[in-house]
């Protein structure tokens, strides 16, 4: 009798897991289950109207993963912008130029993020056995299988689960504990370009300030993505409700504000707010009542955006689903255990890297935001 794997979550890690599971089943085309006895059930709520996801910088390390998933041609044809240059004011007042052309994996990309996610979804929908455009409302394991209840009342049974449902961890929270390194939040906005006489700089800019740090990147559609990262007690609620307060925050920067003003971008609405802290699950994979599961993407580990590896990590984790669960379904947990170790080793390595990155900024060493991170475990 064939096996069934349920993948929960849209975004990036979910469709990557679907593609990897189908590839591991040895299919060369068609839907999962047509040839290899594998059923891949994908629970993927559709994007909301006006969906404009945050985060557009894709690191060069993602390129070989996309190639393994068979997405290189789609990426080349999608209109994403090659990103060679990052300008950084970190540890000093002047901007330093870090050129990414030296990466062996090729250049990074500034994505049309909505199109990127739509393309991933389209490729995964083409091969999944069934797609359920809804969410999981309840989950549990029994008799060696996972039992999922969907929001529309339908129930599914699966031999294994990939939880790519983000920080909510709809399935994994039943089997793991979430750890947190900080309370980082992001106030973010997309600024329209109002001055056609100015050609905006095609770069990514990072700027440290006393209460946190800023990020800006010119998107392929010509809008400027701007985000301010800080702690909730240092931000307060005012900037997300009051345009004047948001404008004052931008004006307090040395480089971000100048880019916005000189290039003719419009600060015409307060920002949105989202969580951006470093969190992770322990364990990130295992079995419940004999049924294997693995977390992927932000569900497994969500990193401080300073790393610029959030999307790459999501692709990596999703791409591991095929090899990890194909062996686990045969009763061999070697790959499942190795995956769990890799995720936790990656978290430990990132936490050490994070301390080192924040320690490079000494101008604000006594300020609460920086002191918290330079002394964090």
TrEMBL record:
Q: Give the signal peptide, or none.
A: none
Return the Pfam families for the record.
Trp_halogenase (PF04820)
Which Gene Ontology molecular function entries are recorded, alphabetically?
A: monooxygenase activity
Instruction: Name the domain of life this protein comes from.
Output: Bacteria
NCBIfam families found in the cross-reference section: maturase_GoxB
Name of the protein in question: Dehydrogenase (Flavoprotein)
Species annotation: Thalassobaculum litoreum DSM 18839
